[in-house]
Design brief:
By secondary structure, the chain is of the alpha/beta class. The protein has one domain. The protein is 30% helix and 13% strand. Helix 2 links the parallel strand 1 and strand 2. InterPro entries: Aldolase_TIM, rSAM, rSAM_sf. This is Radical SAM core domain-containing protein. It comes from Neomoorella thermoacetica.
């Protein structure tokens, strides 16, 4: 999901990225937002894997449950980056843009 709350469109991936997958070695999803919130993340990763590309993404780890981890293993995801912006409410403001909430 992007900064403005919109997902990277699947149609954009199919039209402008998928045709060129063979020209790159790695497709890596990161940036503004949490890749695991995208409803088609695994479809994009699978499309790249089917072209023999390496795939990965950076996540804050909150959504890394058993089902997600098993799917990553099954598709042979190559890289899983964990973003740790602060270890507690004292260090978080120094390293991350958002305030820490006790609701997590």
């Amino acid at each position: 999901m992007s900064k403005n709350g919109a997902d990277f469109p699947w149609e954009f991936f199919v039209r402008y990225i998928a045709p060129y997958l063979r020209q790159v070695g790695l497709i890596y999803f990161q940036g503004w937002g949490e890749p695991l919130l995208h409803p088609r993340l695994f479809d994009m990763m699978q499309a790249a894997k089917e072209q023999g590309r390496r795939v990965g993404f950076t996540t804050n780890g909150i959504l890394l449950g058993t089902a997600v981890l098993e799917r990553l293993v099954e598709m042979q995801s190559d890289i899983l980056g964990l973003s740790v912006a602060g270890g507690n409410q004292v260090t978080m403001p120094r390293y991350g843009p958002a305030p820490v909430s006790n609701d997590c």
